[in-house]
Amino acid sequence: MTDSMNPFEQLMRQAQEMAKSMNPALESFSPKGFEAFWGTMPKDIMEMTFGKGLNPDGLDAKTRLLLTLAGLTMQGAQADTGVRMTVRHLLEVGATKAEIAETIATMAMFAGVPAMNRAMDLAREVMDAKSGEGKDT
User: Fold this and answer.
1) Rounded distance, CA 26 to CA 43, Å?
2) Distance from C-alpha of 41 to C-alpha of 47, rounded to nearest angstrom
3) How far is CA 43 from CA 22, 29, 129, in A?
């Protein structure tokens, strides 16, 4: 066998070629660029939907999102979009950069340093972009 690609790489290449043949604009498609189209929910909506709307004594939206970020980090921070979107929503509900970094850093003990570093890099992308907008939290 002369082709050194693994089956997953072959499948991904085939899917990209098929997408390009259907729509040439997809040749330069980037999931990261697609994230810009997804809005950030307002804090009140997140609190109603994911916070204490159903259970007044339950967790607030910020705590739930911090738990989500911890879980995504535990999975090796492989879901780039999920991590970035969670950090974006955390900033919206009032989480500080220190709280976000502490949540990720805590997961180093359980998920390992590589997962922590990956999640921190993804979070830093979002936090740096927010700082560039003049909205430093």
Assistant:
1) 33
2) 10
3) 39, 30, 19
